[in-house]
Amino acid sequence: MFNFMLFAHFAGLIAWLGALLAIVIMLGMLKTELGSPEASTLAKRIIRTFSMFAHPGAVLVLISGVFMIVQMGMGTEKPFWLQVMEKGGGTIILLALILTGILGSKVRKRLGAAAGTTQQPPLKGYLISMSAVIVMTLGIMLVVSLKI
């Protein structure tokens, strides 16, 4: 069962980070075109579609990670890398789920409001926060991979 959970953990991680990376890259490329209604509609679809992969992927990472840590049964004598994975990883996942949900819906509303106008809705904060989640997750993965 541990090996299946490890597979689920990695599969969720790939789906989660891949979807976030796709959002950042596609919206970054589309940012200059957002004055047109077509581009705003496409940006809303990008956020909605890739969020359908990112959110379940993050939940899968969280659930499988908790299951594996409980199954390891190390008690209070955990190595540093496992503590980072447990506390840091769990915090980043929960923060990312809340942040992507709230900011994603705000950006979609702004895109809908700006669809008929020539003004570009601000995406900078959304793209920076998605990029920060990716970088923090990669940092956790580095600590765990090196078993520091």
Q: What do these coordinates show?
A:
82% of the residues lie in helices and 0% in strands. With 148 residues, it is an all-alpha fold.
Helices and strands in order, then pairings?
Elements: H1 2-30, H2 37-72, H3 80-113, H4 124-146
Helix pairs in contact: 1-2, 1-4, 2-3, 3-4
Which descriptors would you attach to this protein?
mainly alpha; 4 helices; 82% helix
Quick overview of this protein structure:
The protein is mainly alpha-helical. The chain has helices at 2-30, 37-72, 80-113, 124-146. It is built from four helices and no strands.
Q: What is the alpha-carbon Rg in Å?
A: 18 Å
Which stretches of 5+ consecutive residues score pLDDT under 50? none
- Main beta sheet, described? none
Distance between the termini: 26 Å
Number of strands: 0
Beta-strand content bin: under 5%
Helix content: over 70%
Treating each run of at least 4 consecutive H or I residues as one helix, how many helices?
Answer: 4
The secondary-structure class comes to: mainly alpha
